[in-house]
Specification:
This protein is an alpha+beta fold. It folds into 3 domains: 167 residues, Alpha-Beta Plaits; 60 residues, 5' to 3' exonuclease, C-terminal subdomain (DNA polymerase, domain 1), CATH 1.10.150; 158 residues, Dna Ligase, domain 1 (2-Layer Sandwich). The protein has 18 helices and 14 strands. The chain has a 5-stranded mixed beta sheet with strand order 7-8-3-9-10. A 4-stranded antiparallel beta sheet has the order 11-14-12-13. α5 packs antiparallel against α6. It is globular, with a radius of gyration of 25 Å.
C-alpha cells in the first residue's frame, strides 16, 4: 500500500519513525506470566517487606490499581483500600531475564534500540520498511511479546522520542497509539503542562505563576519570558510543547558499572578526623555523580595508599541500596577505621560505588520513620545539586568538610566568584532540621 500524501507505506519520506515500548505493570505482569494459577487477574503488588506487611508499594497490577492502590503507597494503606491484596517479594533477577527477552524480540526489527529502563525502550524503525508499515511492526512486536512472554505492553508510534513516549501512555494496557506532529495541537495542547513528559510538578507550578496552565499556552508563550524564568530550559520547554525533539535513539547507551573518585593528599595524613573529612568530600562527589545517572549503589569500596605507594582496597555492602552521601560516608569511615591502624600515614584516599542499579528498579524497604524522612533527604539532595549545577561544585560545603576553619567557606565562595549564602537552602524550604 502506497500513500500519495508524502508517505510511503506509512513512513515519512523525510523524517524518522520511533516506537516507544512500555511494558505494563512489568514486575507484577512477570509474576503473573510465571505463576498464572497463583496471580493471574488478581490484585497483586510487589513490596519490599512482605512478611511484615510494611514498607511501600513498588508497583501493583491493574486489578489492584482499580481498587485505589498506587505505587509509593504505604502497604498498610493499600491493605485498607484493597482487602486480600497479594504481596510479592521483588525478584530482580527474574525481571532482568524477562527484560532481556523482550529487548531481544525488539532487536529483531531494528538494531537501533535504546533501553531507558528495565521495562521500556525506544526503537528507531525508520530503516525497517522490509518488515512492513510502522503500525504493522508495532502490532507484530506487541503480539510476539504477548504470545511468547505472556506480557502486556503499550507502544507509541511517532516521529520523535518525546511524542512516542507520550503516545505509549495513551492506551494502557495493551494499546498502540500514533501521535503525529500535526496532531499535537488537538491531542496535547488542551492538557495541563504537568502531563508532558519531562515537566515535573515544581516546573508546572512555576508555569502556573506565569499564567501558563496548558500545553497550548506553553507552546505559544513568549520565549523571552520563559528564558528569563527558566534560563536555557525555557526555550526547550516551548519546543517540547510544540512536539519538537531531535534527540537520536542511542543504542550504545550503557549504565555505569561503577562510580569512583580518588584524591592524592597534599601531605601525608595521620589524623583520623582529617581523613574522615576527606572521605566526606569524596562521598559527596560520588553521591552526586550517582544521582545524576539515576542510580543507587549496593556496595562501597575504599582505596588507601601509603607513602610507599602500597595500596589496599576494602569493600562492604550497604544495609540497603542508596544514593545518599551520608550512607556512603558512614560506610567509608567504618571501613577505614576497621582496616587501617590509627596513626599510620596516608597518601591517597578513594571511594568507589559498585553494584549499581537504576533507582526506579529499586524495591524500597523502609520502615515508617525512614519512609517519612526519605522525601526530605531527596529534597535536600535536589536543592544542593541544583545549586552546584548553577554555581559550581564548591559552592556548598558541609560543616564536616570545613573542620576547624569556618573561614574556609568564605574563601571558597570568593574563589568561585559568587556571594551565595546559606539562605539559598532556606529559600527552597529546607531548614536545618531537615538534615
Amino acid at each position: 500500500m502506497v500513500e500519495t500524501n508524502g508517505r510511503a507505506n506509512g513512513y515519512p519520506v523525510n523524517g524518522r519513525v520511533i516506537l516507544h515500548i512500555d511494558m505494563n505493570a512489568f514486575y507484577c505482569s512477570v509474576h503473573e506470566a510465571v505463576e498464572p494459577d497463583k496471580y493471574k487477574d488478581k490484585p497483586i503488588a510487589v513490596a519490599g517487606s512482605v512478611e511484615l506487611r510494611k514498607g511501600i508499594i513498588v508497583t501493583c497490577s491493574y486489578k489492584a490499581r482499580a481498587r485505589g492502590v498506587k505505587t509509593g503507597m504505604l502497604v498498610r494503606e493499600a491493605d485498607k483500600l484493597c482487602p486480600g491484596l497479594i504481596l510479592i517479594r521483588p525478584d530482580f533477577d527474574l525481571y532482568r531475564q524477562f527484560s532481556r527477552r523482550f529487548m531481544k524480540i525488539t532487536y529483531e526489527y531494528s538494531p537501533l534500540v535504546e533501553a531507558v529502563s528495565i521495562d521500556e525502550c525506544y526503537v528507531d524503525i525508520t530503516g525497517s520498511k522490509m518488515f512492513g508499515a510502522p503500525l504493522e511492526i508495532a502490532e507484530m512486536i506487541q503480539k510476539r511479546i504477548r504470545e511468547e512472554l505472556h506480557l502486556p505492553c503499550s507502544i507509541g508510534v511517532a516521529p520523535n522520542k518525546l511524542l512516542a513516549k507520550m503516545a505509549s501512555d495513551m492506551k494502557k494496557p495493551n494499546g498502540i497509539s500514533v501521535l503525529r506532529k500535526r496532531d499535537v495541537s488537538t491531542v496535547l495542547w488542551p492538557h495541563p503542562c504537568a502531563s508532558l513528559f519531562g515537566i515535573g510538578k515544581k516546573t508546572a507550578e512555576k508555569l502556573k505563576r506565569l499564567q501558563i496552565h496548558t500545553l497550548g499556552q506553553l507552546a505559544n508563550a513568549d520565549e523571552r519570558l520563559l528564558s528569563d524564568r527558566f534560563g536555557v530550559l525555557g526555550p526547550a520547554l516551548k519546543r517540547a510543547a510544540n512536539g519538537e525533539d531531535n534527540s537520536p535513539v542511542n543504542p550504545d547507551k550503557e549504565q555505569s558499572k561503577s562510580i569512583g573518585h580518588a584524591t592524592t593528599l597534599p601531605v601525608n595524613y595521620t589524623d583520623r578526623a582529617d581523613i574522615h573529612r576527606v572521605f566526606l568530600n569524596l562521598s559527596d562527589q560520588v553521591g552526586r555523580r550517582l544521582r545524576r545517572q539515576g542510580l543507587v549503589a549496593e556496595t562501597v569500596q575504599i582505596s588507601i595508599r601509603d607513602p610507599d605507594m602500597k595500596t589496599i582496597t576494602r569493600a562492604s555492602k550497604l544495609p540497603e541500596p542508596s544514593e545518599s552521601a551520608d550512607d556512603i560516608y558512614r560506610a567509608a569511615c567504618h571501613l577505614f577505621d576497621a582496616h587501617w591502624k590509627e596513626g599510620l600515614p596516608v597518601r591517597l584516599l578513594g571511594v568507589t560505588l559498585q553494584n549499581l542499579t537504576a533507582k526506579q528498579e529499586l524495591a524500597v524497604q523502609l520502615d515508617l520513620f525512614s519512609y517519612q524522612k526519605q522525601p526530605v533527604k531527596e529534597k535536600l539532595n535536589q536543592a544542593m545539586d541544583a545549586l552546584r549545577d548553577k554555581y559550581g561544585e564548591g559552592v556548598i560545603l558541609t560543616a564536616g568538610m570545613l573542620g576547624n576553619d569556618p573561614s574556609a567557606l568564605i574563601r571558597n565562595t570568593k574563589r568561585r566568584g559568587t556571594s551565595l549564602q546559606m539562605d539559598h537552602l532556606r529559600l527552597k524550604g529546607l531548614e536545618e532540621e531537615d538534615y
